[in-house]
Amino acid sequence: MITVFGEGRGFRVVWLLEEMGLAHRLRPVDLLAGVEKDPEFLAINPAGFIPAIRDGDVTMVESIAIMEYLMARYGPTPLAPAPHDPAFPAYQQFLHLGEAGLAASVYFVVGARNFAPESERQNWSADQALDVFQTRLGLVTRQLAHTPYLAGERFTAADISVTYALELAQHGAGIALGDTEKSYIARTSAREAYRRAMETCQSRKAWFARTPVQ
């Protein structure tokens, strides 16, 4: 039984586990209450951020690294094209772009827009992070103009990575996406594994209900 600690980016991991049919449980982590009050979680990740996993004797953090571990450990899986597959370069690019280029930048926009004092919500750094997000989003838009999924004709873990980032932008920062991205999210979020993951991640489901997209 694989334990996933925390929602947030942990949704990527839960969704992947659902796609792969691997037994798992979600162990909530309340960051707002303060991780210093959660010694069990801090024993898993002393840095105090989510997600983390425990898989037998293995503990890991960082959502993309966790996804790569799970697919390598419990694969092969069509969610991860093999290196000789023509889809592999795009898969690798967008798997990592979903975090490094999209979610990591929009995360700071979410923080500024929702938690900073009113006078600091349009600060220079948040605007720079938004610009980084939007330029990287252009790569997604361009790819989706040619293929239904980011690695080509079939759904892969790259789509889990990027869908999470796009939904974070919509619900967390109020960013309006274009028709191409909206159609893409409609395709990926219609998957049964996505729906099962949302039922597991009840805090995320409630957050979406409170933050309708533009």
From TrEMBL:
Gene3D superfamilies: 1.20.1050.130
SUPFAM superfamilies: GST C-terminal domain-like, Thioredoxin-like
InterPro entries: Glutathione-S-Trfase_C_sf, Glutathione_S-Trfase, Glutathione_S-Trfase_N, Thioredoxin-like_sf
Boundaries of every GST N-terminal domain copy: 1-78
Official protein name in the record: Glutathione S-transferase family protein
